[in-house]
Amino acid sequence: MTRSGRLAGAGAVVRRRLLIAVPVLAATSVGMFALGAASPVDPAKQYAGAAAFTASEENLAQLRANWGIDDPLPVQYLRWISNLVQGDLGWSTSRHEPVASVLAARAGWTLLLIGVSLALVLVASLLLGALAAYRRGGVFDRALRAAAYAVQSMPVFWLGLAAIAVFALALGWLPAGGLTDVTATSTSWSDVAHHLILPVGVLAVSQAPWFVLFVRDAVAESMRDDHVLAARARGLPGRTVLFGHALRTALLPFLTLVGTHLPELVGGAVLVETVFSLPGLGAVTVAAALGSDFPLLAAITLVTTAVVLAANLATDLAYAAADPRVRLDG
Amino acid sequence: MTRMRPTFRRLTAATAAAGMLVLAGCSAPANPDGSSGGATLVVATSDEPDALNPVLNYGVDGASLIFDGLVSRDDDNRLVAGLSTALPQLSPDGRTVTAKLRDGVQFHDGTPLTAQDVVFTYQAVLDPTVDSTLRSDLDMVESVTAPDAATVVFRLRYPYAPFLQRLTLGIVPAKLLSGQDINTAPFNRKPIGTGPYRVDSWTPGDRLVLTANERYFGGRPKNNRVVVAFVADDNVRAQRMRAGEFDAAELPPKLASGFDADTTYRVQRAPTADYRGVMLPTGNPILADPAVRRALNLAVDRAAMVAGLLGGAGEPAFGPIPPTSEFADPSIIGRPTADPTSAGALLDAAGWTPGPGGVRVKDGRPARFTLMYPASDTLRKDLALAVTADAKKVGIEVTPAGLTWDAIDPRMKSDALLMGYGTPYDPDFVSYKLFGSTFAGQGYFNPGSYRSDVADRALQEGRDQIDPALRKAAYAQFQKQLAVDVPWLFLTYLRHTYVLKSSVEGVAPRVEAHEHGVANSLWWNIDTWTRS
């Protein structure tokens, strides 16, 4: 069976998933609004900040009336949905700008951070994990496992501050934070790349242990599989056996792991953004949650849900492409 | 610095094990000097504004770097002329203010400032459809009009002696905002003012870049650019300060004191009018007894709180008017240390006798109350625990409770609360509502329902009388009455701590308000700072 033949049912799968996505997204948004109604936090007081303590009750009531947040929940929800259908995501009360422009300004940086870190984690964990499994119990294997357990026990926040202490303060190689040089006159890609080395490195290192240990165990396991033993018996070179046979079998459950691990990566990104003062979605999500900024929270939740659904779909398609036993048309 | 070295070594080992060196090895050599060029100053704060529009509460107390008010404040917080030719005067009946505008002032886009802009700014604040909390502070304004292009007349509903203090509000150009929804106007992100700096760019969550306004009426700024970096986390801000990225940064007292020994830095501890204290509600059966309140006032060790909890960055507080204010009454200042003997004698005399477990009892009721504090505020938590410990020594049992504001609000009538307030500008601003009986039980205004005819009269007198001497006498009486009634247990005034590079000159700390960020911080006069 050819590779294209294996993905024959892909179109139908994508269509079916899209049909499922609509009720999932609708349920998520209803859930968001229900939580918003249950929240005791007053958005007007959050908006006023310290002025909440000197503003009159009448003044705060006027703000709530201006925003229409005293309306019944179904009314607010219908208004939000009808605006959404017209392409208007609403107004962020915590950020003072349209939700769409908050997302536009910030989502890119978060995606960049997560995307580059994920790519780095995948490549590094496949390589290191496979190498460790090849000489199981060897010096490299033992050192890698020890390092993985050590890193796993370090909170991301601590790891970030430690990286700043070492690479920015003690060695002075890399900037301690920010997106660009603080006095830069423009946003140049080389400047941004220079500033992203530490955050990407910290996020990748903090997420890597899981993947490295998994790959190591899976490859070690498949090194004992019949087809791998057969390949070795045929006298194929070690590299071919490791990467061409053993790693390939171990790759399948790994794909599932990537899909399920995505939310954790997002959580890590939020912390990394805080430590390195990056203007990504992390900080605004926290501010939106604290300030009961439901238009912004709802939009971020919807985007995240959509990304997770898309990632699951991509994982399944990749699974089908990688494993001849999996059929999409079933 | 030396103290930190071993930590560095340990960290290097740990992170190297994690493979960080591999990553760093790929990098280009760093550009370590973030402050090259000589004409750019970089300051860092955690407090990022929501919008850069004075109508929406940006820099309402002046020193906003981008805007100017009709009046501004000098390094002693004294009012001086701003956009007005001379300091405007209140009419003898205290209800009319006429301001004459300075000639030839231009906005950053070159349009001239007129009285219409001033009228527009104040009317926008008063417009109910505009999301401004400043309206509560300007509720005395009946009308604001422009008889000619250079004159503005404010008419007040009632005599209001400190009204000139409200004229620090930055003026926005009417032309760019009229006919627009001010809440959503693009102006809020890219504002145009008359101030010493114009906005070059603002990347929310990252930084605000300001460039010098060559035509500034107060003289061209000495620095071509000012960058305000927004770094929310205190530890990260301290690390980046140490990495040399900033010329000045606001840091909590304990982190700032880490820079004390290093001669390349200078630590500034600016006095503030920002006090912390315990609101003692009259609706609580134990706290309703003046003897308990007075005993608590004697039992707390303010000096220990300043030294232990604030790292020395503060002063003991005995009333709501800061000691740096001309209205402060020195006679209310008590002992900064605890006086448990006098406190115990007071309680004995009032019939509170020692009972089981060391808790005093009167009429079968133990001396016991709950002290709430906002759980997210670690300083208030520390202060609440210190009060608990001090009260225990005189036989009063305090139960500290860390809660969210939503849980605190409904309980303020009957449970004590650690609160903070304070403004350096006029005693009327906060105290009129916080201690006036007409505001009893109205949200955060007088939540403990304190009622005193003497205090009410004094507060009203301070608002009605234009004569500074009469005002001073009225506020002296007010402070004495509070010292007798003890509706609040005033604990400490805070200091705001900043770390600067030693090479920065021209810094002039002044008494700060609670709110300080881009506007109204240590860098209120950054346009005259230089770097040697």
SSE topology:
The complex is a heterodimer of chains A (330) and B (532).
Chain A lengths: L2 H4 L3 H29 L4 H6 L8 H11 L5 H13 L5 E2 L4 E2 H36 L4 H14 L3 H15 L18 H34 L3 H8 L4 H38 L5 H10 L3 H29 L8
Antiparallel strand pairs in A: 1-2
Helix pairs in contact in A: 2-13, 6-7, 6-9, 6-11, 6-13, 7-9, 8-9, 8-11, 9-11, 10-11, 11-13, 12-13
Chain B lengths: L4 H13 L2 H6 L14 E6 L25 E3 L5 E3 L7 E2 L5 E5 L14 H12 L14 E8 L2 E6 L17 H4 L19 E7 L3 E6 L12 E6 L3 H9 L5 E3 L2 H4 L8 E15 L10 H10 L2 H7 L5 E3 L23 H10 L3 E2 L5 E3 L2 E2 L1 E7 L3 H16 L3 E7 L1 H4 L7 E6 L6 H8 L17 H12 L3 H18 L2 E14 L2 E2 L24 E2 L1
Parallel strand pairs in B: 1-10, 1-11, 17-18, 17-19
Antiparallel strand pairs in B: 2-3, 4-5, 5-7, 6-7, 8-9, 9-10, 11-20, 12-19, 12-20, 13-20, 14-15, 15-16, 21-22
Helix pairs in contact in B: 7-9, 12-13, 13-14
Describe the fold and architecture:
The complex is a heterodimer of chains A (330) and B (532). With 330 residues, chain A is mainly alpha-helical. In chain A, a hairpin with a 4-residue loop joins strand 1 and strand 2. Helix content of chain A is 75%, strand content 1%. The longest helix of chain A has 38 residues. With 532 residues, chain B is of the alpha+beta class. Helices cover 25% and strands 22% of the residues of chain B. Chain B contains 14 helices and 22 strands. In chain B, strands 1, 8, 9, 10, 11, 12, 13, 17, 18, 19 and 20 form an eleven-stranded mixed β-sheet that branches. In chain B, helix 7 packs antiparallel against helix 9 and helix 13 runs antiparallel to helix 14. Chain B is globular, with a radius of gyration of 25 Å. Classes of the chains: A mainly alpha (330), B alpha+beta (532). Chains A and B meet through helix 3, helix 4, strand 2, helix 6 and helix 7 of A and helix 1, helix 2, strand 10, helix 5 and helix 11 of B.
